[in-house]
């Protein structure tokens, strides 16, 4: 978290909290609205209603909401909104190759990574310009994944395989450093299922360049960090707090809804 306003969101106390009860309150693009309607999702879930405006406003978010509460689209929708905005700005002749990826999503397991990809891809079907979404997990050759990654806009993967791919290609790692959204999904499981070491290596690799950019006084891309979890046990809070220059869970503005 690099000085972005940080919001901690919990789904508890949802009833009396937010005023947002409809997709139209969230200021979304018409393509997204019609895709949601085609998916049969008539209203946002509480975590979606709370997280989407914060992410669209450029804040880092730590969101806690139980399993099945719609956390995927809580970060998936703002990432796609950002993508739509980017497409409007892109030059006609800006080639796919030269475009850095928009988002990197860390998922604890292969199954969850594929579910995320499917869910986000379904939403993409409504867009006039679909991002290239790719899943990076064990099962495919590293070479094949590197080729897919070189043209990816949204990357969803398990830390183990992502780190394997990143540590074998400086070019890819450099392009990952330009992402606008870093998502740590199901963070509790990422910790308990033993992938935290690789996740930490990935975060460190991404951070090194940002620090270097700041030192060089160059333009440093602003990256939003989004952490979602069903629970925030003490161990996870400590791990996350140890990551940032500033603590992740302590002393920051927190919002309940
Ligand atoms: P979580 O990550 O919180 O466990 P998911 O994002 O996987 O939950 O969503 C759980 C289920 O809810 C999925 O099947 C998804 O299609 C569905 N879902 C997501 N958002 C909505 C919504 N706004 N309205 C209805 N169903 C939704
Ligand atoms: Mg989930």
UniProtKB/TrEMBL annotation:
This is ATP-dependent RNA helicase. It comes from Hyphodiscus hymeniophilus. Belongs to the DEAD box helicase family. Residues 21-49 form the DEAD-box RNA helicase Q domain. Residues 52-250 form the Helicase ATP-binding domain. The chain holds residues 151 to 407 of 719 of the full protein. The lineage of its organism: Eukaryota, Fungi, Dikarya, Ascomycota, Pezizomycotina. The Q motif is unique to and characteristic of the DEAD box family of RNA helicases and controls ATP binding and hydrolysis. RNA helicase. A motif (Q motif) lies at residues 21-49. It is found in: Nucleus, Nucleolus.
């Amino acid at each position: 978290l690099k000085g972005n306003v940080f919001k901690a969101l919990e789904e508890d106390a949802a009833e009396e909290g937010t005023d947002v009860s409809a997709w139209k309150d969230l200021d979304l693009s018409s393509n997204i609205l019609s895709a949601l309607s085609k998916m049969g999702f008539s209203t946002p879930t509480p975590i979606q209603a709370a997280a989407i405006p914060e992410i669209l406003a450029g804040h880092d978010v730590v969101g806690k909401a139980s399993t099945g509460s719609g956390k995927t689209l809580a970060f998936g929708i703002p990432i796609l909104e950002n993508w739509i905005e980017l497409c409007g700005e892109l030059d006609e002749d800006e080639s796919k190759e030269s475009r850095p990826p928009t988002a990197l999503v860390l998922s604890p397991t292969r199954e969850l990574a594929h579910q995320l990809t499917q869910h986000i891809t379904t939403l993409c079907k409504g867009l006039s310009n679909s991002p290239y979404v790719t899943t990076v997990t064990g099962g495919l050759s590293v070479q094949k994944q590197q080729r897919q990654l070189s043209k990816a806009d949204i990357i969803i993967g398990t830390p183990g395989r992502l780190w394997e791919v990143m540590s074998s290609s400086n070019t890819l790692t450099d392009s990952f450093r330009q992402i606008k959204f870093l998502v740590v999904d199901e963070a509790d499981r990422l910790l308990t299922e033993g992938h935290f070491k690789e996740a930490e290596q990935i975060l460190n690799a991404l951070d090194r360049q940002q620090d270097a950019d700041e030192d060089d006084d160059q333009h440093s891309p602003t990256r939003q960090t989004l952490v979602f979890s069903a629970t925030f046990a003490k161990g996870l809070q400590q791990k996350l707090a140890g990551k940032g220059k500033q603590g992740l869970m302590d002393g920051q503005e927190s919002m309940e809804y």
